[in-house]
């Protein structure tokens, strides 16, 4: 049989055998973000194209080459979000969060879309974890945000990451830097790629981020932004580094980091790995003090970062980081015959209501086929119910890992199952290699009575 169609190039299915890894990463990042005071936000998958043209920047590769843009049936230009920040800022303004107590801390798990050449760690539909902090100009916020990302990597067990930081200044000092860059690159203009020739007048900093080998070689000798910082930006950057040292977070200053989006100001940073090839940046972000104002709000200094989840999982797998085991059913009920099936349905409903996961064979196959199915699912316990078991009100519950069997009363099945499974867990538990006397947990010290 031939498939009518396959998944679109640059997209990837998340299958049940791996979904626990996705869920573990997503739960971990949200949990850590909440410890830093961040609350989750969800925004639409598409926005008006103007939002990204104004927010991301019309000189960026994202806007010029990579966005999925189309006209809807009303003739409006719509774009699938290529990143999360612009939509978060739009929601921050439109929903009045700008009138709440500052800073406002939000986070999100989101899908993004960019028309890029697919490769390991780079998809056309990909997923990000992002955080945004609105309403603070303090360098402490920059350091805390870096600390949040660092905490995620430490919790997930990711190692050998390099934190690279830079300051790309404010509009005032950057104007002087642009003059220096334009003068430098103009001497080699004929050697630049066509895209960078267009950037030379509009935004020469974008040339520093070009992936062309020739442009990269030319950019290697370009002036460094850190030599052009105004006193305020310089002091801000010094303070960020002071706080990072106080947090014992190692870093390297890399003057060539500019990030790929136009809205960044002052601090920018990347966490980079050598474990996953060319796509080594697993987290990047920085400050964007002018973006809220650019999108129609009041001046609101802000900052954020994004972390690619597919790239993060690729890195964790390359480093053999530990993932929790996938969940397996607590109980598999083998039902033989109509009367037994009715009873199995009752038991399954009661068990699920108490929070247990219970599986039955919906195809009602033979006992042998059902047992084979239960084994493939990895069920912790198994019980076989036929007409005799229903008539007697009793059946045998089997622990599938130890092989131990216990007779259980079907009229009080939930309590019986709970007691048997708990007692077997306690019997298996050892402390310092010796069986633990659990009665000591319930003893009461009455010496003062």
Describe, in plain words, how this protein is organized in 3D.
- It is a single chain.
- This protein has helices at 19-35, 49-55, 61-66, 85-94, 139-156, 171-186, 194-202, 213-219, 231-246, 291-294, 309-318, 338-353, 367-377, 387-392, 413-428, 439-442, and strands at 39-40, 46-48, 69-71, 77-80, 104-113, 125-134, 161-167, 252-253, 265-273, 281-287, 302-308, 331-335, 358-360, 381-385, 394-399, 405-409, 430-431, 434-435.
- The protein has 449 residues and is an alpha+beta fold.
- An 8-stranded mixed sheet has the order 1-5-6-11-10-9-7-8. A 5-stranded mixed sheet has the order 13-12-14-15-16, sandwiched between helices.
- Strand 3 and strand 4 form a beta hairpin.
- Helix 1 packs antiparallel against helix 5 (139-156) and helix 5 (139-156) packs parallel to helix 9.
- The protein starts with 18 loop residues before the first helix and ends in a 7-residue tail after the last helix.
């Amino acid at each position: 049989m031939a498939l009518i169609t396959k998944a679109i190039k640059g997209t990837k299915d998340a299958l049940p055998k791996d979904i626990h890894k996705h869920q573990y990463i997503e739960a971990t990042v949200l949990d850590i973000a909440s410890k830093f005071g961040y609350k989750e936000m969800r925004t639409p998958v598409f926005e008006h194209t103007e939002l990204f043209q104004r927010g991301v920047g019309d000189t960026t590769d994202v806007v010029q080459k990579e966005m999925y843009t189309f006209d809807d049936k009303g003739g409006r230009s719509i774009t699938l979000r290529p990143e999360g920040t612009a939509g978060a800022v739009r929601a921050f303004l439109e929903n009045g969060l700008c009138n709440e107590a500052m800073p406002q801390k939000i986070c999100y798990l989101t899908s993004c879309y960019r028309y890029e050449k697919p490769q390991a760690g780079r998809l056309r539909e990909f997923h990000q974890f992002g955080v945004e902090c609105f309403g603070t100009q303090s360098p402490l916020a920059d350091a805390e945000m870096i600390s949040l990302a660092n905490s995620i990597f430490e919790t997930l067990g990711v190692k050998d990451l390099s934190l690279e930081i830079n300051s790309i200044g404010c509009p005032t000092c950057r104007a002087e830097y642009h003059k220096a860059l334009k003068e430098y690159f103009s001497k080699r203009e004929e050697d630049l790629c066509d895209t960078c020739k267009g950037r030379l007048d509009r935004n020469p900093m974008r040339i520093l981020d070009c992936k062309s080998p020739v442009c990269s070689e030319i950019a290697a000798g370009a002036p460094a932004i850190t030599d052009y910082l105004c006193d305020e930006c310089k002091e801000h950057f010094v303070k960020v580094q002071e706080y990072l040292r106080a947090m014992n977070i190692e870093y390297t200053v890399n003057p060539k980091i500019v990030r790929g989006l136009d809205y960044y100001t002052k601090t920018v940073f990347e966490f980079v790995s050598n474990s996953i090839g060319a796509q080594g940046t697993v987290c990047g972000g920085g400050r964007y003090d002018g973006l809220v104002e650019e999108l129609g709000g009041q001046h609101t200094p802000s900052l954020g970062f994004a972390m690619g989840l597919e790239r993060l999982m690729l890195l964790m797998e390359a480093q053999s980081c530990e993932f929790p085991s996938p969940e397996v059913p607590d109980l598999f009920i083998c039902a033989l015959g109509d009367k037994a099936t009715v009873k199995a349905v009752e038991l399954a409903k009661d068990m699920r209501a108490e929070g247990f996961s219970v599986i039955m064979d919906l195809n009602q196959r033979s006992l042998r086929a059902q047992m084979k199915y239960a084994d493939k699912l990895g069920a912790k316990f198994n019980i076989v119910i036929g007409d005799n078991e229903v008539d007697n009100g009793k059946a045998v519950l089997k622990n599938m890992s130890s092989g131990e069997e216990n007779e259980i009363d079907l009229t009080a099945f939930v309590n019986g199952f709970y007691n048997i499974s708990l007692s077997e867990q306690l019997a298996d538990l050892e402390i310092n290699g010796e069986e633990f006397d659990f009665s000591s947990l319930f003893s009461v010290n009455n010496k003062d009575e």
